[in-house]
Amino acid sequence: MSEQELRLRANQYSSELKQLGAKIGELESELNEHHLVIETVSKVPGDRKCFRLVNGVLVERTAGEVLPALRTNEEGIKSTIKQLTDQYKAKDKEFIDFQQKNHIRIASAQ
Q1: Which of 73, 74, 88, 105 lies 20 to 30 angstroms, CA to CA, from 25?
Q2: pLDDT tens digits for range 75-107
Q3: Cα(52)–Cα(18) distance, integer angstroms
Q4: What gap in Å lies between CA 87 and CA 107, rounded to an integer?
Q5: Neighbours of 66 (CB within 10 A)
């Protein structure tokens, strides 16, 4: 591989890692929001009216109807975070192996 190809490949790895990291951070924020809502809705009576945004539409439901859906969403987000974290670790290991194989050191921008 030429120096330019190595640089391009290293930049691709770096970009992919940044994208995965940003998505993980976004989902962790969403997970935190779900946790706070679940915590709050758990404290109110099940027949209390509440509103939920579904695909951009505000829907009226009861707290008892919304809570299971929130918990399901929370579990889905946790699962997605785990998958993305595993992808991040694998991609990071792949990048490190690429760097070692090609004797590349990434200079820190200061």
Answers
A1: 105
A2: 999 999 999 999 999 999 999 999 999 888 877
A3: 32
A4: 24
A5: 20
Q: Which two tokens stand for residue 46?
A: 């099940």
Residues 6+ apart with CB under 8 A from 50: 41, 44, 60, 61, 62, 63, 66
Residue type, 110: Q
Using CB atoms within 10 Å of the CB of residue 29, give its burial: 0 to 12 exposed, 13 to 18 middle, 19+ buried: exposed
Positive or negative torsion for Cα 40, 44, 50, 53? positive
Q: Which two tokens stand for residue 80?
A: 């997605």
Q: What is the pLDDT of residues 16-59, one digit of tens each?
A: 999 999 999 999 999 999 999 999 999 999 999 999 888 999 99
Token reading at 69: 């859906």
Rounded alpha-carbon distances, angstroms, from residue 45 to 24, 51, 67:
33, 14, 11
